[in-house]
UniProtKB/TrEMBL annotation:
<keyword id="KW-0812">Transmembrane</keyword>
<feature type="transmembrane region" description="Helical">
    <location>
        <begin position="140"/>
        <end position="161"/>
    </location>
</feature>
<feature type="transmembrane region" description="Helical">
    <location>
        <begin position="173"/>
        <end position="192"/>
    </location>
</feature>
<feature type="transmembrane region" description="Helical">
    <location>
        <begin position="198"/>
        <end position="215"/>
    </location>
</feature>
<keyword id="KW-1133">Transmembrane helix</keyword>
<feature type="transmembrane region" description="Helical">
    <location>
        <begin position="6"/>
        <end position="26"/>
    </location>
</feature>
<feature type="transmembrane region" description="Helical">
    <location>
        <begin position="114"/>
        <end position="134"/>
    </location>
</feature>
<feature type="transmembrane region" description="Helical">
    <location>
        <begin position="71"/>
        <end position="93"/>
    </location>
</feature>
<feature type="transmembrane region" description="Helical">
    <location>
        <begin position="227"/>
        <end position="243"/>
    </location>
</feature>
<feature type="transmembrane region" description="Helical">
    <location>
        <begin position="33"/>
        <end position="51"/>
    </location>
</feature>
<protein>
    <recommendedName>
        <fullName>ZIP Zinc transporter</fullName>
    </recommendedName>
</protein>
<keyword id="KW-0472">Membrane</keyword>
Length: 244
């Protein structure tokens, strides 16, 4: 069956990484209302749209012979793995920043290693999102739009979090790596068709990552986040998703 390819969704998400951090009104403390709204939208999408799809996709995963006797809930296991992986990365970065404040003169070599670990992990994350984005083009325009909007807002949240951690290194190098990874993931989708079961597992991993990456930006006390804004974003997008 011929696959009609539209490049605009990946270009829009790439544009977010290029220019998202230029939105200066989103920076600073207390945390921007708009970032909290964006985080709420992303989480609502995962719980009300992505996870129900994963539940339907469980039957494909159960057909994997190598996994049949491992666990009966492979899909949700992968969501847990995604959440745990990004929680671990965040702890590594936070602890390293603390060590740098304690002993700033011996920071450079180790600091670069942490930067590349962090950016490399998000590059893989972006590549997976790019692949899912291409797969969404096989579905309805509505499904593609809902995914693209949620990921665009999620990327803005990620951009500000990564810039806070890595400052000029992210602006000069990191965001370019993430853009390239997104496009590469989308391109892989164009030339490689993974089995349906693996696509479902990739979506599950990304879903867990989205939840953790949003909440880690909202929860720290020093961010002075606005709970009502997060709930507003989640509530409005939930209403939209449930009405479709």
């Amino acid at each position: 069956m011929e696959h009609h390819v539209s490049i605009w969704p990946v270009l829009v998400l790439a544009f977010i990484h290029f220019f998202g951090i230029q939105l200066r009104f989103l920076a600073g403390v207390p945390r921007s209302v708009w970032l909290s709204v964006a985080g709420g939208v992303s989480v609502a999408y995962v719980f009300l749209h992505l996870f129900p799809e994963l539940s339907e996709g469980q039957e494909h995963v159960s057909q994997l012979n190598w996994a049949e006797q491992f666990l009966s809930h492979h899909v949700y296991l992968m969501s847990l793995v995604g959440l745990a992986v990004f929680y671990g990365l965040e702890r590594v970065v936070v602890e390293e920043k603390y060590r740098q404040r304690q002993a700033p003169r011996k920071e450079q070599p180790h600091q670069q290693g942490i930067f590349w670990l962090h950016i490399g992990s998000f590059a893989i994350y972006n590549a997976l999102i790019g692949y899912i984005l291409f797969q969404r083009e096989e579905g309805t325009l509505q499904s593609l739009l809902l995914f693209s909007i949620a990921m665009a807002l999620h990327f803005i949240v990620n951009d500000f979090g990564l810039q806070e951690h890595h400052h000029d290194s992210y602006r000069r190098i990191g965001r370019w790596v993430l853009v390239a990874a997104l496009v590469v993931g989308w391109g892989v989708g164009y030339v490689v068709a993974l089995p349906e079961a693996l696509v479902v597992l990739v979506m599950a991993f990304v879903g867990g990552g989205v939840i953790l990456n949003v909440l880690k930006e909202e929860l720290p006390e020093e961010r002075e986040s606005r709970y009502w804004a997060f709930m507003l974003g989640a509530g409005l997008y939930a209403i939209l998703l449930l009405s479709l």
